[in-house]
Amino acid sequence: MCNLSEGVYGSNSVSAIAIACHECGHAVQDAKAYAPMRARSALVPVVNLGSSVWLVLLLAGIFLNIIGLVWVAIAVFGVAVLFQLVTLPVEFNASSRALDFICNSSSYSGTLSDNSKKGAKTVLRAAALTYVAAALTSILQLLYYISIFGNRN
Questions:
Q1: CA-CA distance, 41 to 67, in Å (whole number)?
Q2: Where on the phi/psi map is residue 34: left (φ > 0), alpha (ψ -120 to 50), or beta?
Q3: Residues 30-79 pLDDT 10s
């Protein structure tokens, strides 16, 4: 299965190469049964269900004044936050593998300039930081819900 968008697949830009190598890093993780990748994969079905249900549970708990239902919603949202935390090492590792390939592989080391390699590193770092930002946002949102509803007990 190819996880490359048409814009990445059809481009030979430094960004496209970095992203393609990153996706190859995920393929290597899968082939080597990388533990954080396996943990993330195990959480996917639960998170998919929880992502579509938690807000309904939260609103139902608030409107029906059932604090237990609110806490179930918060716990389900907590699993989504856990998923984001487990995703961090998976993404950082895939980017690390990509950068290693770009800088050390005979396929790319002779064809990419040092500036291009720096550019690839910048792209990979920026992509990884989007996951960090999403995880921090979710953690803060979870703490917000806990603080609001923790005071109502």
A1: 31
A2: beta
A3: 999 999 999 999 999 989 988 889 999 999 999 999 999 999 999 999 99
Centre a 10 Å sphere on the Cβ of residue 17 and count the other Cβ atoms it contains: 22
- Dmax of the chain from CA atoms? 65
Neighbours of 103 (CB within 10 A): 14
Please state which of the ranges 109-113, 115-119, 143-147 shows the lowest mean pLDDT: 109-113
DSSP SS3 for 60: helix
The residues annotated with a catalytic role in the active site are 23
Contacts 24+ apart (CB under 8 A), 122-130: 123/14, 123/15, 123/18, 123/19, 124/18, 124/22, 124/95, 124/98, 124/99, 125/95, 127/19, 127/22, 127/91, 127/95, 128/91, 128/92, 128/95
What is the Cα–Cα distance from 95 to 125, expressed in whole angstroms? Answer: 8
**CB within 8 Å of 36: residues ≥ 6 apart:** 86, 89, 90, 93
